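# step 3/5: fold
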Amino acid sequence: MLEQIVKKYVPFKGIYNSDGFDENGRITIPKNLIDTLQERQDTEEKGKLVLFYRLHTNEVPRYLELTDYFTKNEYVNFSRYKLISQLDKSSRILITPNDLNKIIEAHTPIVFVGSKNKILIYKAEDYKSIEPLSFDALWNIGVRLLESYSLPKLN
């Protein structure tokens, strides 16, 4: 139960640039995201970071999703997720080159986006095309609209 609470309320956040994956499909996860992963772990499981990845090849733009948590009340098709066995000492993960090539070529600059219980990995050029539509930008638009209808009119 504690693990569910911790993982639910310690979200991934931030945007981090990277030089990309190497030919072997390895990428270093940014330190801040590793720190968040460790904070999200159950006390008894410290040091045993378990991650899953999923390819989003039908979305535009395409991206790779990493997660360590699935809510119990959410239907999850686990056939779409693959286990990442472990992080190495350099905080690198290994994704099979066949899977990676469907999303990102080796040494292509990428962007890590912390998004609640997920880490999303985009090609940097693809992320630039959707950046203005970030959650924060949409939230700010929504707040302004709500305020315009709920605040008294100025004379």
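# step 4/5: annotate
The chain has one domain: 2-127.
# step 5/5: archive (pending)
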